[in-house]
């Protein structure tokens, strides 16, 4: 009897090997995954090796059964009922996905969070400091016990104050994880807290959040409203835009693209843009540029047919130039794998300080745009491999280090580090109202409502936030800035030599 059972087991084993390829692969993958897990358990296999090996193995969902994620769409009430935070949305993050506790370090640009908050590191932030930022703020955001309250002081341009929507989505992504906090937000382009007015040990600069700053200002930079869509220009939420531009990059190979520098935008907003238009191709001269005036009012009437971002990755080179301050166009231009020609700017947003000249972009002089652009294109067309690599590095940076999960992680760490500096217990101001996704979105309509629904976080994230890297030590930071400046000067030197030699030949 025992012998017959052994023969039956051997026969069953060989029958397994006769399974179709798909079923056999499934079986082997499951067995291998279980075996590696067992070896780790008894200490015969290193977890680092296990991680490396399993990354090469496609583990079928039948091996690790992950419960289907429950989603929580907008719950809009009918009639004149006051909207409230949905009672069934999770108040805490329940991590069930394998690997959700893996230690992942945030991208390097997160280190600038420490620098932006450094002015308050020694003194902390008092309630008086916060309230002194009200002078230009559009709204005050207070979070108490996991609920968001907003007090509005003025109407921002278009829908810029919908950054509040982004913070509400962060609270859905990491429910119950944001601390109590109290902050002021200014939605205008240019920073206003000047560093020169707040020097010395007794300085008390107002902590004011906005979308950009400069080395001479203390405004705290925060992701802009367009990450959740820009209804005024029909630009979809960032997650969808990234996918579209990635597909657009595939349509035309780099070597087959138009070998000129491309820019499309509104020149009326800044003198530097009007100056850029002087570099357009004309009957008397070709500066290797193709520049187009974007009339948003006319574009709106035509259904935005000429402004699809994924259709604008057709030239080898794309120009970035600031507007009134920094421009939201920056991330869209860098997402194309064309080499970005970055016109020198004093303004920075939250991620641009993580980019390196000649690695992610080619620097362009602001005071000699035309000659600088012409040289950059000449250089790129004579060094196609290097130019293509710069474009691809920037595109990879945007696609990977700037995916939406990292946008939420940046917001999470910035708000947490800011809250640690508060020397008072946040309370709800008398004029503030409680907000949730429903109170903001349910009464909206048209494109704005569409983009809010598209950018709604449907359920909590599967992972913990990435690990915030430590601050720069003074020497490392100085070396980083010196190296950046040295690289830019090297490009200027190449450019000067190019034009000197060209002038001598005439």
Automatic annotation (TrEMBL):
Membrane-spanning parts: 26-45
Membrane as UniProt keyword: yes
Annotated InterPro entries: CAP10 (IPR006598), O-Glucosyltr/Glycosyltrsf_90 (IPR051091)
Keywords of the record: Membrane, Transmembrane, Transmembrane helix
Domain Glycosyl transferase CAP10: 177-425
Highest taxon of source: Eukaryota
Name listed for the protein in its UniProt record: Glycosyl transferase CAP10 domain-containing protein
Naturally occurring in which organism (per UniProt): Erythroxylum novogranatense
């Amino acid at each position: 009897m025992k012998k017959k059972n052994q023969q039956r087991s051997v026969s069953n084993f060989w029958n397994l090997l006769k399974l179709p390829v798909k079923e056999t692969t499934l079986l082997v993958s499951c067995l291998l995954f279980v075996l590696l897990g067992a070896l780790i358990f008894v200490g015969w296999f290193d977890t680092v090796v296990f991680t490396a090996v399993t990354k090469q193995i496609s583990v079928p969902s039948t091996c690790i059964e992950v419960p289907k994620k429950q989603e929580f769409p907008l719950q809009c009430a009918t009639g004149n009922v006051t909207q409230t935070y949905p009672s069934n949305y999770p108040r805490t993050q329940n991590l069930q996905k394998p690997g959700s506790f893996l230690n992942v370090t945030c991208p390097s640009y997160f280190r600038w969070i420490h620098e932006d908050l450094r002015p308050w590191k020694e003194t902390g932030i008092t309630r008086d400091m916060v309230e002194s930022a009200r002078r230009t703020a559009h709204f005050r955001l207070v979070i108490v016990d996991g609920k968001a309250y907003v007090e509005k002081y003025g109407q921002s341009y278009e829908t810029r104050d919908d950054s509040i929507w982004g913070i509400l989505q962060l609270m859905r992504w990491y429910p119950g994880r944001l601390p109590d906090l109290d902050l002021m937000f200014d939605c205008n382009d240019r920073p206003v807290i000047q560093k020169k007015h707040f020097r010395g040990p007794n300085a008390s600069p107002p902590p004011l959040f906005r979308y950009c700053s400069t080395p001479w200002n203390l405004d705290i930079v925060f992701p802009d409203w367009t990450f959740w869509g820009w209804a005024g220009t029909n630009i979809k939420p960032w997650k969808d835009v990234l996918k579209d531009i990635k597909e657009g990059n595939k349509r035309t190979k780099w070597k087959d693209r138009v070998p000129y520098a491309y820019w499309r935008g509104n020149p009326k907003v800044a003198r530097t843009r009007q100056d850029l238009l002087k570099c357009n191709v004309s009957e008397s001269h070709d500066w290797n540029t193709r520049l187009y005036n974007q009339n948003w009012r006319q574009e709106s009437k035509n259904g935005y047919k000429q402004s699809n971002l994924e259709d604008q990755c057709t030239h080898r080179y794309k120009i970035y130039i600031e507007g009134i301050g920094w421009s939201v166009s920056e991330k869209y231009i860098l997402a194309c794998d064309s080499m970005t020609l970055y016109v020198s700017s004093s303004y920075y947003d939250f991620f641009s300080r993580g980019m390196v000249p000649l690695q992610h972009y080619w620097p362009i002089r602001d005071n000699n745009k035309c000659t600088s652009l012409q040289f950059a294109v000449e250089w790129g067309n004579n060094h196609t491999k290097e130019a293509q690599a710069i474009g691809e590095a920037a595109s990879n940076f945007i696609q990977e280090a700037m995916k939406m999960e990292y946008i939420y992680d940046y917001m999470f760490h910035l708000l947490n580090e800011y809250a640690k500096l508060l020397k008072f217990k946040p309370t709800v101001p008398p004029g503030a109202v409680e907000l949730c996704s429903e109170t903001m979105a349910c009464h909206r309509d048209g494109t704005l409502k569409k983009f809010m629904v598209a950018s709604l976080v449907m359920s909590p994230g599967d992972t913990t936030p990435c690990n915030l890297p430590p601050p720069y030590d003074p020497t490392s930071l100085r070396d980083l800035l010196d190296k950046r400046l040295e690289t830019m000067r090297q490009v200027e030197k190449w450019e000067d030599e190019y034009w000197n030699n060209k002038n001598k030949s005439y």
